[in-house]
Design brief:
mainly alpha, single chain, Arc Repressor Mutant, subunit A, binds FE2/S2 (inorganic) cluster, two-stranded antiparallel ribbon, elongated, 2 strands
Length: 86
Protein backbone atom coordinates (compact mmCIF):
# COMPACT_ATOMS: atom_id res chain seq x y z
CA UNK A 1 0.00 0.00 0.00
CA UNK A 2 1.28 3.43 -0.86
CA UNK A 3 2.07 5.50 2.20
CA UNK A 4 3.83 8.44 0.62
CA UNK A 5 1.98 9.44 -2.53
CA UNK A 6 4.32 12.33 -3.28
CA UNK A 7 7.32 9.97 -3.55
CA UNK A 8 5.55 6.69 -4.40
CA UNK A 9 6.81 4.91 -1.30
CA UNK A 10 4.99 1.83 0.01
CA UNK A 11 4.73 0.34 3.48
CA UNK A 12 6.80 -2.61 2.25
CA UNK A 13 9.62 -0.31 1.19
CA UNK A 14 9.54 1.37 4.59
CA UNK A 15 9.70 -1.98 6.42
CA UNK A 16 12.54 -3.12 4.20
CA UNK A 17 14.44 0.12 4.89
CA UNK A 18 14.04 -0.48 8.63
CA UNK A 19 15.17 -4.11 8.42
CA UNK A 20 17.95 -3.78 5.89
CA UNK A 21 19.14 -0.18 5.99
CA UNK A 22 18.89 0.56 9.69
CA UNK A 23 16.28 3.27 9.29
CA UNK A 24 14.82 4.07 12.71
CA UNK A 25 13.19 7.48 12.30
CA UNK A 26 11.68 9.85 9.73
CA UNK A 27 14.99 11.56 9.10
CA UNK A 28 16.51 8.25 8.10
CA UNK A 29 13.49 7.44 5.98
CA UNK A 30 13.77 10.75 4.15
CA UNK A 31 17.44 10.12 3.51
CA UNK A 32 16.94 6.51 2.39
CA UNK A 33 13.73 6.70 0.35
CA UNK A 34 12.95 10.38 -0.01
CA UNK A 35 9.59 9.82 1.68
CA UNK A 36 7.84 12.45 3.80
CA UNK A 37 9.77 15.42 2.48
CA UNK A 38 7.11 17.23 0.49
CA UNK A 39 3.57 17.66 1.82
CA UNK A 40 4.26 15.65 4.97
CA UNK A 41 0.80 14.08 5.15
CA UNK A 42 2.35 10.62 5.23
CA UNK A 43 4.59 11.33 8.21
CA UNK A 44 2.29 10.01 11.00
CA UNK A 45 1.63 6.72 9.21
CA UNK A 46 5.26 6.32 8.14
CA UNK A 47 6.38 6.97 11.73
CA UNK A 48 3.94 4.33 13.00
CA UNK A 49 5.20 1.75 10.48
CA UNK A 50 8.79 2.39 11.55
CA UNK A 51 7.80 2.11 15.21
CA UNK A 52 5.86 -1.14 14.64
CA UNK A 53 8.67 -2.64 12.60
CA UNK A 54 11.28 -1.77 15.23
CA UNK A 55 9.05 -3.14 18.00
CA UNK A 56 8.50 -6.35 16.01
CA UNK A 57 12.26 -6.78 15.49
CA UNK A 58 12.99 -6.34 19.19
CA UNK A 59 10.24 -8.81 20.04
CA UNK A 60 11.70 -11.43 17.69
CA UNK A 61 15.21 -10.91 19.03
CA UNK A 62 14.08 -11.45 22.61
CA UNK A 63 11.35 -14.03 22.09
CA UNK A 64 12.43 -17.29 23.81
CA UNK A 65 11.22 -19.55 20.98
CA UNK A 66 13.00 -17.48 18.34
CA UNK A 67 16.18 -17.48 20.39
CA UNK A 68 16.02 -21.24 20.98
CA UNK A 69 15.32 -21.99 17.30
CA UNK A 70 18.16 -19.76 16.20
CA UNK A 71 20.56 -21.43 18.61
CA UNK A 72 19.58 -24.89 17.33
CA UNK A 73 19.66 -24.05 13.63
CA UNK A 74 22.83 -21.96 13.39
CA UNK A 75 23.89 -18.51 12.34
CA UNK A 76 22.12 -18.33 8.96
CA UNK A 77 18.76 -19.16 10.51
CA UNK A 78 19.42 -16.77 13.37
CA UNK A 79 19.70 -13.93 10.88
CA UNK A 80 16.43 -15.00 9.22
CA UNK A 81 14.63 -15.08 12.56
CA UNK A 82 15.94 -11.68 13.60
CA UNK A 83 15.07 -10.21 10.20
CA UNK A 84 11.48 -11.35 10.65
CA UNK A 85 11.50 -13.86 7.82
CA UNK A 86 10.15 -16.60 10.08
S1 LIG B 1 2.53 12.00 0.90
FE1 LIG B 1 4.54 11.84 1.62
S2 LIG B 1 5.38 13.81 1.40
FE2 LIG B 1 3.38 13.94 0.58
Amino acid sequence: MYICICKNVTDGQIRKAVREKGVHNLRGLRKELGACDQCGKCAPEARQIIKDCLHHSVHLETHPVSTALAAMAGPLTERAVVAGNW
